[in-house]
Amino acid sequence: QSVLTQPPSVSGAPGQRVTISCTGSSSNIGAGYDVHWYQQLPGTAPKLLIYGNNNRPSGVPDRFSGSKSGTSASLAITGLQAEDEADYHCQSYDSSLSGPVFGTGTKVTVL
Amino acid sequence: QVQLVQSGAEMKKPGASVRVSCKASGYSFTNYAMHWVRQAPGQRLEWMGWINAGNGNTKYSEKFQGRVTITRDTSASTAYMELSSLRSEDTAVYYCARSATSMKFDNWGQGTLVTVSS
Asked: Does B63 touch chain A if contact means CB atoms closer than 8 Å?
């Protein structure tokens, strides 16, 4: 089954910049489908963080940014804060599955 | 504001079925799609299927085809997900999530824990 691959964990000190990669294939990200990112705080439902590769919904700080190139996408968090400690999931659409597909998830730890 | 409120936790035995509801408010229910996504303990989010709340058309993930049924009641602005032939591997938190055209999930329910155990 097609999945989007993310690193299991990333960490950084407060104020630092961290990036999370999301590697797909020619049937999803590489086919030109948009990538969306979700933040999941402990014990809560996911929340839309970035949509359409690099757009922030209203209320999301500009410390969060997204990019996409080829078969991969990235989420960057600058000025890392304690409240950013959460799981982050990328998501796209997969033509071989004919449906949405999620990444394997990344836990961000603030040191 | 948009709200998706799901039904409460369920405990089921293997082989049984479970139905989870998702009541929408704060927007025009029939103008959006409703998806169902699950998350088993320590696992990634997994898309199960979706329903066009306007015309009732559905599409299911191949993995769940034949076991999952998604329906909606427009008069109650509520979507339902029924999963049958439950097994222990179906133990997970089940979420409903709204989408428009771009398959981005812009609002999520609070989640419903379904535990399958003998």
From this structure: yes
